[in-house]
Specification:
The protein has helices spanning about 10-15, 20-30, 45-55, 60-65, 85-95, 105-110, 140-155, 190-200, 215-220, 225-235, 235-250, 260, 280-285, 300-305, 320-330, 335-340; strands spanning about 5-10, 35-40, 75-85, 115, 130, 135, 175-180, 205-210, 270-275, 315. By secondary structure, the protein is of the alpha+beta class. It folds into two domains: about 5-155, 2-Layer Sandwich (Alpha-Beta Plaits); about 165-330, Alpha-Beta Plaits. A four-stranded antiparallel beta sheet has the order 2-3-1-6, sandwiched between helices. Strands 8-9-7-10 form a four-stranded antiparallel beta sheet, sandwiched between helices. A two-stranded antiparallel ribbon has the order 4-5. Helix 3 (about 45-55) runs antiparallel to helix 7 and helix 10 (about 225-235) packs antiparallel against helix 11. The longest helix is centred in the middle third of the chain and has 18 residues, at about 140-155.
Length: about 350
């Protein structure tokens, strides 16, 4: 069976209620598919209408897309998943309008809401509250058409969002970067979602996501400040530093030409942007110390770290670091669109 590309939309309500990590955990672990792309959207009425037309066979979903999701200020996260039979596999995990009445059999069962309101509740008969939480196409044609729509609107409606206007004017609003490291993506599993779930305890908003294949050149720049420290502390400091570069990108700088070092690596990580009050310190607190053996319970590095290098995730330690690091990985690059176009 040939590989397919499909997509999943996580709605504004699911994002706000911090259900993203658990949704991702189930998607990856149950599907066995690769997460190869992701992008945040602040969907316009045009994008929502186009998606609604593509879900015309699912009346509730189509109405939700055209109505609730299209309201100004809402966000959604789109995930791109690839593998054999991806469309059917993801559709079965997510569910649809007809599969929302079970006991957690689908993601919609677990995280969505479909509540009929009765006359005694003060509503007209037949009125309902519908929030799917997760949306996915259930046919190859629907996946292909939806991907084309998302690619078309990915520049105008997608990217790194900004929600600073939602906070008091005097609040100290920051953005910070988290990299979920490559060992979490060795195979499709719950770990990336579990990391995101722990990050959600900060109460910060997820405003940007990019699946990154860091080049050797990018990794060298990113971890450049570490080299001097390692060389001062260890006689073989540069060897340790090259091991970090290889862990993040897939190759040591000494093994490749300058031209080859500029190409995307073969290791995958997830770059996340969080925004909110004191975002940098809040994320650092839930991340824990660099050495997992010294990390408190409840931190990412205690839960998922193995050693100082394979310690679950990285987070910016200052505004200056955030700006430097996001520039190195080109956080505003729209690789989401290029991934879709390359699979046509």
């Amino acid at each position: 069976m040939p590989e397919q590309l499909t997509y999943v939309l996580i709605t504004h309500r699911a994002l706000y209620k911090a259900r993203t990590g658990n949704i991702l955990s189930r998607l990856l672990s149950l599907s066995g598919l690769d997460l190869i792309g992701a992008r945040m959207f602040s969907p316009s009425t045009k994008l929502c209408a186009a998606l609604a037309d593509n879900f015309s066979s699912q009346e509730l979903t189509s109405t939700f897309l055209r109505g609730s999701l299209s309201q100004e200020g809402n966000q959604m996260l789109c995930l791109l998943l690839r593998g054999e039979g991806a469309v059917t596999i993801v559709s079965n995990i997510v569910g649809d309008d007809e599969r929302m009445d079970g006991r957690g059999e689908t993601l919609r069962d677990t995280y969505g809401e479909h509540v009929l309101l009765h006359e005694e509740e003060g509503e007209e008969p037949g009125m309902y509250y519908f929030e799917p939480a997760v949306i996915a196409p259930n046919s190859k044609q629907g996946a292909s058409q939806g991907l084309a729509i998302l690619a078309e609107f990915s520049e105008s409606d997608g990217g790194i969002l900004d929600i600073s206007t939602q906070f008091p004017a005097e609040a100290k609003i920051e953005k910070t970067l988290v990299l979920i490291k490559p060992d979490n993506f060795d195979f499709p599993n719950r770990r990336p979602g579990a990391v995101i779930d722990l990050l959600a305890h900060t109460g910060l908003a997820l405003v940007g996501v990019k699946i990154q294949q860091m080049s050797v050149a990018q990794a060298k720049d990113f971890y450049g400040p570490v080299l001097e420290v390692l060389e001062a502390k260890l006689p073989d400091g540069r060897i340790h530093w090259e091991s970090i570069i290889a862990f993040m990108s897939g190759a040591r700088p000494s093994e490749l030409s300058e031209k080859a070092q500029a190409l995307p690596g073969n290791q995958r990580c997830a770059a996340l942007i969080y925004q909110g009050e004191d975002a940098i310190s809040k994320i650092r607190n839930v991340l824990g110390p660099t050495d997992p053996s010294k990390a408190p319970h409840g931190t990412i590095r205690k839960e998922f770290g193995k050693d100082i290098m394979m310690n679950g995730a990285h987070a910016s330690d200052s505004t200056e670091s955030f700006l430097r690091e996001t520039a190195i990985i080109n956080i505003n690059e729209n690789n989401f669109k290029s991934i879709i176009l390359s699979h046509r």
